[in-house]
Amino acid sequence: MSETLTEPPPAGDDEYVFFHSGTTPTYRKITKTPGSFTTIPTIDISALNSPSPSLAARKDIAAQIHAACTVSGFFYLSNHGLPASLQASTFAAMTRFFALPHATKMTAHVQKNPAIRGFEPMFETRLDPRTQGDTKEAFTMGDCPLEPEQNYVSKTGAQPPSNITRPQNIWPEGEAWFRDAMYAYYAAVTPLAAKLIQIFALAFELPETAFDGLFKFPIWGMRALHYPPLPPTTTKGEEAAAVSLGAHSDFSWLTMVLQDEVSALEVLNKDGVWVDAPPVPGTFVCNVGQYLERQTAGRFVATVHRVRNKTGAERYSLPFFLTPDPGARLEVLECCVGEGEERGEAVDVGELYIRRVLPARPKHPTSIKYRDVPENYLKAQEPDLVKPIKFLNATAI
Ligand SMILES: O=C(O)CCC(=O)C(=O)O
Ligand SMILES: [Fe+2]
């Protein structure tokens, strides 16, 4: 068992890692004798690319996913069928976007968008309070019933909700190619995610379609990330502050990250040791988010991770964060509740999302607007107060 503290640790020889999981900052002692996972498994899903994969093949993949999510909460997904040319063109578009003049990127500044989407310059977020901010810039987009690329009507059989009157995403002015590139990737990654949702149901020996009803028009976020190299450090303090993206667990159900060839992602094992998740060409790095952890009563772990780009090279990555429908209620799976254990409460997916996303962006106008509204009032007034931002999504932190 590793030792965890919620206050800064006393000075001494012991080394602690700091992370922010949920709402509580935590310090976990680094043990010198790891007994937890030290590598991240690779799961080959080539069988799923055939028109009708056998049940045995599907069950085999589901069993591997079950094992990975239980032990490390992380796995690489190989032979997933996303064309290499699409991956390359997506990275090329991201590189081109981040190389645009600052003023052009700022036409899509996150502060201009009520749903907290858009461009976030360097140091705008700060997941670890000991740092000057996260050394990364990002562009986030997400679910929007009004953007035609997302086919709301054909997916749901309904018209967009009447309270959504404006597109939820914001795009840089005069750079239509970027929107096209992001949506080309979205169009390829979403069918893959739909396949995985069924495999996850199978992992619990449920009918493969058991979770489909939770993902009719889900909350999702896609976040293009650019991490410039961190400057070299000389002191212990500088080293602790050298973080590209502070330690966190994802506020999603499942995250699928496409990373380039620059190694910087690290995953915290149960002994408090950081395990590298280096790029494996042609794979996604997938990880369990807090919703799935909750749904499985903690059987699947939303593992803490961080990014430190110490390579000297520019790094780009593209997480796809998937969360169930904003109107869904997420129950704890019965099969995950042991004898004598209490079944945790079901949660309203969208409501929890809003309560978590707003504090994560305290300087954003939308967060400021709702900051002083007491939670019970927010709940009681739900149609009026919550509806305008019901479909927001920002980040999975
Ligand atoms: O850049 C990466 O590899 C991971 C990014 C991440 O963890 C996040 O955005 O939540
Ligand atoms: Fe993450």
UniProtKB/TrEMBL annotation:
Pfam families per record = 2OG-FeII_Oxy (PF03171), DIOX_N (PF14226)
Q: Which residues form the Fe2OG dioxygenase domain?
A: 218-324
Checking InterPro entries in the record gives:
DIOX_N, IPNS-like_FE2OG_OXY, IPNS-like_sf, Oxoglu/Fe-dep_dioxygenase_dom
Q: Which residues cross the membrane?
A: none
Q: Which PROSITE patterns does the entry link to? A: FE2OG_OXY
Q: Which UniProt keywords apply?
A: Iron, Metal-binding, Oxidoreductase
Listed GO biological process terms: small molecule biosynthetic process
Task: Extract the GO molecular function terms from the UniProt entry.
Answer: metal ion binding; oxidoreductase activity
The family classification in the record reads:
Belongs to the iron/ascorbate-dependent oxidoreductase family.
The molecule here is called 2og-Fe oxygenase family protein
Source species of the chain: Lophium mytilinum
